[in-house]
Amino acid sequence: MTPSTIWTNTLLTDNARELLSEATKSHRLIIAEPPKNVLAVGAPDPSLREAEIVFGQPPPDLLSQSKKLRWVQLSSAGYTRYDTKEFRDALRSNGAVMTNSSSVFDEPCAEHVMAWLLADSHQFYPAYDNQRDAQEWAQNQLRANIRLLADQMILIVGYGAIGRRLTELLAPYPVKIIGYRRTPQPNSPIPVIGPDELPAALAKTDHVINILPESDTTVRFFDAARFTQIKLGSRYYSIGRGSTTDQEALQQTLDSGHLSAAYLDVTDPEPLLPDHFLWRTRNCFITPHMSGGHVNESIRIIQHFIDNLARYDRHTLLLDQVF
Fold it and tell me: Considering the entire predicted model, what is its pTM?
């Protein structure tokens, strides 16, 4: 095995730094200043150009200039800022590949959606509001509004790793699950539809789960027209990217009562400013882009990189290859 120069600006706990250093001791490791959060791009660092392997959230322009680059692994599942023709061409000219960390985040994100589904069905949010405000024993009202997941229809828009794991978590429940992809793939564990079938599916579904990534074709994908296509009284969940939701249209749909509730883990912008209308929108429940987080997140991100590094050293197929 020929030693490689590895550059990283991944956010590291002390334990994660120790794990990474130990696993890469046969290589040269450069640890750069990390960005402020797991999704922010890192600051320019000239030493990146020395690296054959880059891991974290590197500046795309510096990557494009590198002639030594052979492999990029992102510390996130999202890769919007790298998904350009110029960047793809630069990778291709080096014979390089890019992978992400979607295998790290499919479990926590799927559990987050599962928690939403159960909290919504069992009236946890209204019960908490009652405890905080009226403090009445609203037993009969809350019991009457509980809905079982049984026989509900769930539409997963942007059916990928998170959607597949969510499907597994929902396996014990007698629900109908349909996936949506712009280009449906064969051999999916659930029925997967394409664009022509989407309006009819929206009109029948009880829960619309948006896991779309950001791209030219997905910005404001859920706009006023699509929200009106959704079955009256349904619930909307967004856990992919905030830009895929027309937030003003969502507010209007919630205010009108057409949607009974919306659950957002992603917004546009992020962070959401204190005076933003979404905070005060009727039946809109917001978590601050926390769905992928977990106590051992840093360790799992590093372990995923180490697993792929072993594959890279053996010249075998890398996990979570994007392009």
Answer: 0.92
